[in-house]
Amino acid sequence: MVELYFTRVGNFSMNASPSFHVLPLAAGYARDLLDWRYQPPYDFYDPPEVNDPEHYIQQLLNPELRFHAIVGAGIADHSTANTADRNKTMIGFCSYGIDGQVLGGDYSLSALDIGLGMKPCFTGQGLGGPFLQAILHHARLNYAAVRFRLTVADFNRRALNLYHQLGFYAVDGFSDPEQQIAYTILLADTESLEAMTCQ
User: Fold this and answer.
1) Does the pLDDT of residue 151 top 70, yes or no?
2) 148/135 Cα distance (integer angstroms)
3) Strand 112-118 and strand 147-153: pairing?
4) What does the DSSP assignment read for 26-43?
């Protein structure tokens, strides 16, 4: 599970009103994702170094994990020439379901877990709100969830602040027994999010 974070690293151009779309993750987007590298301390979210990248890509394409690409029209990525579709630049990805959970957390309450990550060159540019709202809008249209859940590493204060601003509230905290990283679990009711969107 990878989260959105914000720090100024990047080289891109954007028009005034980017338009985000959520699409099932295709192999080209999954392959691009393997090259993402974040600045410390967010390198915690770097994709793993793998000996068999095609095997990892097939895991990302597993329909049970429901990985999606978030693409933007009107945004140009100059960080790489390896783009899956030059008319639809990949801004980040998300997953709906179990991939958004972290070992050690209490996920007994019924909710749709969401994992997400933004491409390093697009972080720190004020795209976080529209990016997450596109992910939530897609979830409302396609999944019958009463509430959404995010699991966020505690050191990622900027992501936590954004999620609170968008209507999520903390319900639990725990430490990953393998990596000893502290996490916060946040929830948001779909009705509350819809009311905030309409304001």
Assistant:
1) yes
2) 11
3) parallel
4) PHHHHHHHTT--PPTTGG
